[in-house]
Design brief:
The complex is a heterodimer of chains A (about 180) and B (about 180). Chain A is mostly helical. Helices cover about 70% and strands about 0% of the residues of chain A. The radius of gyration of chain A is 39 Å and the shape is elongated. Mean pLDDT of chain A is about 65; it is low at about 115-155. Chain B is mainly alpha-helical and about 180 residues long. Chain B is about 80% helix and about 0% strand. Chain B has helices at about 5-15, 20-40, 45-60, 70-95, 100-110, 120-130, 135-145, 150-155, 160-180. Chain B is globular and about 55 Å long. The mean pLDDT of chain B is about 95. The chains are: A mainly alpha (about 180), B mainly alpha (about 180). Chains A and B meet through helix 2 and helix 3 of A and helix 2, helix 3, helix 6 and helix 9 of B.
Chain lengths: ~180, ~180
């Protein structure tokens, strides 16, 4: 009671909860002093000779280089950004025109920018493939190629395929075939 | 912690848009203090050197944007601290990917570090500090070795004084526990 009055009389202020926290603060201070007595608080690390003298020179070279690179690249950065934008738009146009056979669900996925190998569910993929296979247009494409020179009949026997390959190899240079692969 | 004269001189140069002179003055005035602040966090000289350079390159890039809302030294220490934390996190991630422990690796390499001049007792203390969580480690280093005031620390780390005190108290108690084993 007497102590509080003294504080009031002298009009001094103390931080909030000062006396409540005092014991804890003192304990930490004692541990800290013990640590300093036993282990010291000197810096145990060193640096290579002349490190700080040479540091400014090294840094100056680096900041000049960085500054110069930015200066040199500055005019090209906007051009590069423009090219990237055009490529991006071109990709979107290509994706939209080449995917007429893909389901509406898949188109939504592309538009949501979530189409990557990590998030394609196997079920989604097989559904899309099944839709594509069920579409009779696929067979139309195969049928339209029946008249080409390199036709292999779907019901050909193993011997027939083997004969075809031997004939084909006789007619063509293997090096050329390999080069064309 | 910082000299008021150079602080006001640097501020004046920035206001005058004399950025390269201001930058040179900043480097000369703060390179050593920032270096030791970083070094105590990452321990290796080479890592500290890289982080110090990166910190100053950031300062150089953003000097034009410095509006004087905070003190120069607070701004610099904040950049250096953030750069160090980013560096440590990257190293930790790499170590985790290789099923290693970054703190364990630091603790082992410290003994053979040619730029560690401490005796056995200082080595024990450094190993104890390495056991602390990152934030407590930063606070402990700043208070125990550099005797930075909580108020200054609060501006640098953007954390309340109360929280910093709590971190320091936890750190001191943990270190005391650790060194009891030796």
């Amino acid at each position: 009671m007497k102590k509080e009055q003294t504080i009031k009389d002298t009009k001094f202020k103390i931080p909030e909860n000062y006396f409540q926290n005092f014991n804890d603060e003192l304990l930490i201070r004692i541990i800290e002093e013990n640590l300093k007595d036993r282990y010291g608080n000197n810096n145990p690390f060193t640096v290579p000779e002349n490190y700080f003298n040479l540091f400014s020179v090294k840094l100056e070279t680096k900041t000049n280089k960085t500054g110069k690179v930015i200066q040199i690249l500055k005019p090209y950065l906007s051009i590069a950004a423009g090219i990237l934008l055009i490529l991006g738009l071109w990709q979107v146009i290509l994706t939209n025109t080449n995917n007429d056979n893909i389901t509406a669900e898949t188109i939504d996925t592309i538009n949501n920018n979530t189409l990557n190998f990590d998030n394609i569910e196997l079920a989604d993929l097989s559904e899309t493939v099944d839709d594509y296979i069920d579409n009779e247009d696929v067979y139309d494409v195969v049928n339209s190629e029946e008249d080409t020179e390199q036709e292999i009949e779907l019901n050909a026997s193993e011997d027939e395929i083997s004969d075809y390959l031997i004939d084909y190899a006789d007619e063509n240079d293997f090096d050329e075939i390999l080069a064309s692969l | 912690m910082h000299s008021g004269n150079s602080e006001s001189q640097i501020n004046h140069l920035i206001k005058e848009q004399n950025y390269s002179v201001a930058f040179n003055l900043i480097v000369e005035e703060y390179k050593e203090r920032l270096y030791w602040h970083i070094r105590k966090m990452v321990l290796s000289h080479d890592d500290a050197d890289d982080i110090l350079q990166n910190s100053f390159i950031k300062v150089w890039r953003y000097l034009e944007n410095f509006k004087g809302d905070s003190k120069i030294y607070t701004w610099l220490f904040r950049i250096a601290t953030n750069e160090s934390i980013t560096f440590i996190n990257k190293k930790k991630k790499k170590a985790e990917e290789a099923f290693e422990n970054y703190e364990h690796y630091l603790s082992n390499t410290l003994e053979s570090d040619e730029y560690f001049d401490g005796d056995e007792a200082q080595l024990i203390l450094q190993k104890a500090i390495l056991k602390l969580p990152e934030k407590q480690r930063i606070v402990f280093n700043m208070k125990y070795f550099d005797e930075v005031k909580y108020k200054d620390m609060s501006e640098i780390l953007e954390t309340s004084v109360g929280s910093l005190k709590a971190s320091y108290h936890h750190a001191v108690k943990k270190i005391e526990e650790f060194v009891k084993e030796f």
